[in-house]
Amino acid sequence: MPLTTVAFSTLPAQMRGEGTGLYNLSRNVGSSVGISVVSALLTENVQVNHASIGAYVTPFNRGFDTTAVQQSLDPFTAAGRAALDNLITAQATIIAYIDDFKLSMLMSLVAMPLVMLLRKPASKPAVDHSVAME
User: Fold this and answer.
1) 134 belongs to a structural domain
2) Range of 60's domain?
3) What's the pLDDT band for 122 if we cut at 50, 70, 90?
4) pLDDT tens-digit readout, 52-98
């Protein structure tokens, strides 16, 4: 709402129809591009993090020597590999979402100083409405 108010406060009344169309077009295109970029980064980060975490899952990792881990996360059985893959994917997804939220925070911090570039609309002379009633 504040962005809409700022966008239309400086437009003359006869140009508000065109301004509405241009404003909605730019807002929709901007949000579509933003969603696409964040989705692409999320997918890429999940894959990169999955590969990084998966590099530690080897038969030589001493963490798999305990009985509790061998029962459910045994890399030598199909069920164990599937459980390990689900666990690694979940952790990689969490890390990817954290990275995307960090990017969103940084983009917001970069955009905040742009508020200083907004200007107040020129004040119009006061109109005496009592004359119109006569």
Assistant:
1) no
2) 20-112
3) low
4) 999 988 878 888 788 888 888 888 889 888 999 999 999 999 999 99
CA distances (Å), origin 110, targets 40, 117, 129: 21, 13, 45
Split into its structural domains, the chain has a count of 1
Residues 6+ apart with CB under 8 A from 38: 100, 103, 104
The answer to the question of residue 8 being in a domain is no
Q: Which amino acid is at 38?
A: V
- The residue assigned the tokens 């045994």 is 74
Can you tell me which residue has the tokens 């509405």? 20
**Measured distance CA(124)–CA(9) in Å, rounded:** 12
pTM: 0.71
